[in-house]
Design goal:
InterPro entries: Dimeric_a/b-barrel, Tscrpt_reg_AsnC/Lrp_C. This is AsnC family protein. It comes from Occultella aeris. This protein is α+β, with helices and mostly antiparallel strands. It has one domain (2-87): Lrp/AsnC effector binding domain/regulation of amino acid metabolism (RAM) domain (Alpha-Beta Plaits). The protein has 3 helices and 4 strands. The chain has helices at 15-23, 51-56, 80-87, and strands spanning 2-10, 28-33, 40-46, 66-73. It is globular.
């Protein structure tokens, strides 16, 4: 599985609509509205590298209200959630 993190600048008047449309695109697993220099972050997960252009350039970038995107392809996944699950004994907190 190939993961890309897509930073999205959006028209401020359309952020909720852009987020919903982006989240509904096949290949987008999550879309977050965030604070800071960008408006949205989308997590794109596809099976083949060649599919990234179809999701990011052909779909996300063409959503009405998307002004600009920056994409970062993940090389390796590190997750504290995986480590927690490995040591979880099922005891109540």
């Amino acid at each position: 599985m190939i993961t890309a993190i897509v930073l999205i600048d959006a028209d401020a008047a359309r952020i909720p609509e852009v987020a919903k449309e982006v989240a509904d695109i096949d290949g987008v697993s999550e879309a977050y509205s965030v604070t800071g220099d960008i408006d949205l972050v989308a997590m794109v997960r596809v099976r083949r590298h060649e599919e990234l252009a179809g999701v990011i350039a052909d779909r996300i970038s063409k959503v009405e209200g998307v002004l600009r995107t920056q994409s970062y392809i993940a090389f390796q996944t590190y997750s504290g959630h995986d480590l927690e699950a490995a040591f979880d004994l099922g005891l109540a907190d």
